[in-house]
Amino acid sequence: MTYETGRAHTRLLWCAVIVGASLHGCTSFSKKEKGAVIGAAAGGVAGGIIGRNNGSTARGAILGAAVGGAIGAVIGHQMDQQAKKIEQQVGGATVERVGEGIQVTFASGLLFDFDSDQIRSEAANNLRSLAQNLREYPQSELLIVGHTDSVGDDSYNEALSERRARATADYLVAQGISRDRLRTSGRGEMEPIANADDQKNRRVEVAIYASDAYKAELKKGGY
User: Fold this and answer.
1) What is the DSSP string of 187-210?
2) What global pTM score does this model have?
3) Which of 131, 140, 205, 218 has its CA 20 to 30 A from that of 183?
């Protein structure tokens, strides 16, 4: 999916959420979800609910970081430019614009050997190119999410996916990306995007979204 398609998909997703909320209010939300919606007024964490319902921790992180308004428009424009560069410069990656951020997906087979959390030498160029892009756009933070297929033990898969996410983060740090910009998560087999045993489920997703410091800078600038 290209970043243009991703933007259209995100707009439709938000429309569906808004329409659903107007029809059903909060009556269909659990207590935990109602709390997240209330918190959204202050911190934009409603995206976490959208992400869980959509089966994507990475997407939820991006949508949860959205601020909207003039600041969101500035961030969105920057993300448009960054997404274009990632698509041009980073091999082996699927780039999707989501809300006010970018989701970059690597098939795990491109980054790791089977049952391994060691970055493959052939994949190093891809991550170096991503790191170069991230250095050009230092106002963002990242959530790196590892995923596996359903073959094997659940707990083992979750641990493997977390190790792969951390290995990806460590490599980016070695390329000069501040660790303060990075978070990791291992979701194992819990967020499939294809048939349970499909290799597409073995992937690493990188959610890129504006940092709180950058949002505060824009706000101070009068946006």
Assistant:
1) -TTSS-SSSTT-GGGSEEEEEEEE
2) 0.78
3) 218
